[in-house]
Amino acid sequence: MSLSMKDKIIQRFLLARGEPISGQQLADELGISRTAIWKHLQTLQDEGYEFITIKKKGYRLVSVPDRVDAARISSYLNTKRFGHTIHYFEEVDSTQSIAQQLARDGAKDGTIVIAEEQTGGKGRMQRPWYSAKGKGIWMTVIIRPNILPHQAPQLTLVAAVSLVSAMKTLYKNFIPEIKWPNDILINGKKCAGILTEMLAEMDRVDGLLIGIGINANHELDDFPEDIQSIATSIAIEEKQKVDRAQLVAEILKYLEHYTDEYVANGFAAIKRLWVEHSCTIGKRIKATTIRETVEGEAIGITDEGVLEILLDDGQIKKVYSADIEIQN
Amino acid sequence: MSLSMKDKIIQRFLLARGEPISGQQLADELGISRTAIWKHLQTLQDEGYEFITIKKKGYRLVSVPDRVDAARISSYLNTKRFGHTIHYFEEVDSTQSIAQQLARDGAKDGTIVIAEEQTGGKGRMQRPWYSAKGKGIWMTVIIRPNILPHQAPQLTLVAAVSLVSAMKTLYKNFIPEIKWPNDILINGKKCAGILTEMLAEMDRVDGLLIGIGINANHELDDFPEDIQSIATSIAIEEKQKVDRAQLVAEILKYLEHYTDEYVANGFAAIKRLWVEHSCTIGKRIKATTIRETVEGEAIGITDEGVLEILLDDGQIKKVYSADIEIQN
Predict the structure, then answer these.
(1) Among B97, B156, B321, whose Cβ lies nearest the Cβ of A204?
(2) In a designed cystine with A165, which of A254, B48, B84, B272 is the match (CB 3.0 to 4.6 A)?
(3) One biological process GO term for this chain (chains A, B) (predicted)?
């Protein structure tokens, strides 16, 4: 992991969890002068970190800005590779398009791009994705598993299972569910979405861009009016503000774990977890594709991530891409 | 099609096929002054075009530089969409990486990137591809068919069929053959290769980059020594220099035709043509994959472009990616 000196200082304070650290100790640990330490602390104060000086003990960090920067994420991180390179931005067009460029330029497996705000965020089918400033997690994880292009949809399911697992670990007041193909719902309302894009040759995946958008600290009126009845946030459902950096680190932990599990042992275990957390399978649904609308019971997904619907006439219909409405 | 004034002038001369055109006529047709025409002709002479002045008749184009620029390709072009936007370069790292950027920025279906020389050309599996200056066709065609990601390998086969069809139309002294997955051979030696890359969401292809490398006017000692025994060029086999711009236009014609045919009527007809021109199917082969080497008879390809090999023990092995050696 490569952090700047400033990031190292703040990480040291974050790991101290509120205990004071003396300037001399910091200077010794990091191999720079006390004056340099003092200058970095000034810069950090300008960025919104607050310190108080405790006589004979040193500096104590009392308040951190609500950001998802490298220092804050790293202070929670417990992974072998994922999140070891973090590209953080105040504002971007979309994390996905920056990640595409980085992937082409050879970014390592597990590199992430994260921003406080996206001005041109996109969901599936190029639909706009609303990404309010400082409220959510707008992130792309670049992964480079050794798989074939036709296996790539399985990684969207890996990502969904990882998101749900991270949420269940951290929050206790709700149960997140997966809606095929790539939404996370809480109490029937959309809380997160996953957009997986792929750079591939015909017989080789060069890179997958797992785009993750999560409504974290939105209050209801942070959403545009027309989606207030169908959108929600973790904070609304948990009835408490979310530490976004902690959630990012938890997602990265599960995403790395389940990706490695998938590459080592195949799709079966992931598929079982996905079905377990799905709110689609076993339900009567209406699926609207580009060509038609079909109704029936969602009975399963194939190894290609394709939804299987049992129609009323007994036929099984395979659906690659659709908008789903759950009817019971 | 958008050509510069200079390109329009040269295209006019190319279409005149050696007949003289008066300065006044050109000025009238293009709506600019005779002085402006004269200045453009000066620039064109600097670029290697040669004109002679014929008394009372005007200018006659007597020699064109050996280039594959927009004007030269356009003068042969007979397509509805493909090649209507041409990005021409003297030298690039690789046409594929420029095309990736253009595709992300919304380049139209059929846009091409072509260069006289590639300094970092790549074949399959990131292998270097030798792209000598001014000798070959180093081109990427951006296509945006409405297909699902798992259908994408079929477009590599569409491209192979298009290349072979264009060569058979223009040249009479050899028969090109397709070697699975993406090589064009003449008399058993490699003459061209296709590298298809894809930008895709899980349920939608955003764009395909059909990279085409053709050894056109190479003489044997234009190839590095270590590949002289396995490489060839059209000029070597046809025993005559190739008009590269004409070949580009012919490839674009077939590529547009077969892509449209494929999208309208499916893969069956393309597959039949591919098998017809294949030098792999029906042969005993040795296939080396990342994991193993298998031997047997290549009996067919699936709709996913996967090669099926009948092993000696009667099993049928499916091969997604391999190097193939033909043994009889």
Answers:
(1) B321
(2) A254
(3) protein lipoylation
